[in-house]
């Protein structure tokens, strides 16, 4: 079934993405992030100015101490980053649909 661009955006705006760590909901704590998979190509956050935000599966960060050495995470947890004590993973998020003209047209993205 083929959806128009507007139908795709309406479907996207009603969904929710959950990203949970392996220990989320256990006595160890863990954490989660939750967001709607939508980005905006204008300062007005309106359905007519929205586009897709697609997230990919989590993957481990190899050698997190060297990758994150200029980050807030490093400032707080530097002593733990290259040990098994701290799970360090990343998620890639891409913005836009092929049909929307996206960044080429507006040079603006808000998430």
Automatic annotation (TrEMBL):
UniProt entry tagged with the keyword DNA repair: no
Membrane topology term: Single-pass type I membrane protein
Principal subcellular localisation of the protein: membrane
Subcellular localization, as worded in the UniProt entry: Lysosome membrane
Keywords, comma-separated and alphabetical: Glycoprotein, Lysosome, Membrane, Signal, Transmembrane, Transmembrane helix
Residue ranges of coiled coil: none
InterPro entries linked to this entry: NCU-G1
Role noted for this protein: Required to protect lysosomal transporter MFSD1 from lysosomal proteolysis and for MFSD1 lysosomal localization.
Subunit note: Interacts (via lumenal domain) with lysosomal protein MFSD1; the interaction starts while both proteins are still in the endoplasmic reticulum and is required for stabilization of MFSD1 in lysosomes but has no direct effect on its targeting to lysosomes or transporter activity.
Family as reported in the entry's similarity comment: Belongs to the GLMP family.
Name of the protein in question: Uncharacterized protein
